[in-house]
Amino acid sequence: MMTGSDESFHERPSQADDAAAKRRIRSKSAKNSFVAFLSFCFSGALALVLAAGAVVYWGKTQFDGPGPLQTEATFLVPKGGGLEGISTALERNGIVSDARIFEYGTRFERAAGQLKAGEYAFAPGASMRDVMNTIRSGNSILHAITIPEGWTVAQIYARLSADEALVGDLPPEAPEGSLLPETYKFTRGLSRAELVSQMSAAQSKLVAEIWKGRQDGLPVSDVGQFVTLASIVEKETGIDAERPHVASVFVNRLRKNMRLQSDPTIIYGIWGGAGKPSDEPIRQSHIASETPYNTYVIRGLPPGPIANPGRAALEAVAHPLATDDLYFVADGTGGHAFSRTLDEHNNNVRRLRDIERRAAAERGQPAPPEAAVE
Questions:
Q1: Alpha-helical regions (H) of the chain
Q2: What is the DSSP string of 225-253?
Q3: Contacts of the segment 20-26: beta carbons below 8 A, 24+ positions apart
Q4: Given a cut of 90, is residue 226 above it in pLDDT?
Q5: d(C-alpha 62, C-alpha 249), whole Å
Q6: Among 63, 100, 296, 308, which has the minimal tally of Cβ within 10 Å of its Cβ?
């Protein structure tokens, strides 16, 4: 038979059991808290992912959607321009709706380092992706400037100065004859100095190429004289087919130590690169003027070119036509009449004067003055 104390001992939980129960309760509570924390974190992360996805989706729709342009617009991407600056400028010019979206979208497409300087045209409604791809392509607007053959450096510089697509100051005046007459294409923002450098390099290359393949026995001793004679040929005729014939006359005269008697050299000696005023005729006093360039006074070639010759004139001097002609004069139809003797030349001059007198009479104008001949 158990005593009361024994019965009480067996019915009351031990302290160890009580502690274990408390630990189980705390463990269960901790597990519940941890699960709740994980659930919260997962829910938060999921919310963030969904929010980020929504932002990305919204950004993509903005990046690919129609842009704000209502009419075609152009935009100049400067050399060395950073993506942030380009983005801001695009928004400022109304080409994209949001600079940040354009910047982030371009970075996401890994095109940040592929944007190329230049002037670009954008169609109405162009998306940010369209804008990015256009600038990325480098297919910028090309401007063109044409330098006619036979222009002087002064005339070329005046044209470059007036072109609003070029920037910067002109360099010191280049030597006469050193710039290639040509049509040059360039993107807006090209410096005038850089274009002059291109023109100079192009002329140097062309002259060296043609000089190397020249005909043997020409009466020019160096490249400088070669370009000088080509500049005179250039100014004497604008007809490509005539240039080798004109060149042959001057080559024949040089070989005979005759004066070249070229009117354009008179003009350059008196008025320089600016050229003769259109209302100023060549007078007897001009023909007798003692300038280093006046080939009616000096023998041989002038001290330098009187213009910038193009390829046709350079080729004509390098490969002149084989003739015995020593004279030429305008024939009244835009070309020239060539002759071997002074008598033939004077007859050609008289025919020209008759044509000019008849034309002047038809216009009710006085007859032009007689020109001097050798």
A1: 4-11, 15-64, 83-92, 99-108, 128-137, 153-162, 192-212, 223-236, 243-255, 263-271, 284-287, 311-318, 342-363
A2: HHHHHHHHHHHH---GGGHHHHHHHHHHH
A3: none
A4: yes
A5: 72
A6: 100
Helices (H), 65-191: 83-92, 99-108, 128-137, 153-162
Token pair 């300087």 is at which residue? 117
- 258-278 pLDDT, tens digit each: 999 999 999 999 999 999 998
HSE of 64, CA atoms in CB hemisphere, 13 A: 7
State both tokens at 214. 């020249």
With a cut of 90, say whether residue 367 has pLDDT above it: no
Predicted confidence at residue 374, as pLDDT, reads 40
Instruction: Indicate the burial class of 158 (C-beta count within 10 angstroms; 0-12, 13-18, 19 or more).
Output: middle
Task: Tell me the domains of the chain and their CATH numbers.
Answer: 73-137 (3.30.1490.480), 143-202 (no CATH), 216-363 (no CATH)
Model pLDDT for residues 274-294, shown as the tens digit of each residue:
999 988 888 999 999 999 999
Average pLDDT over every residue of 188-210: 97
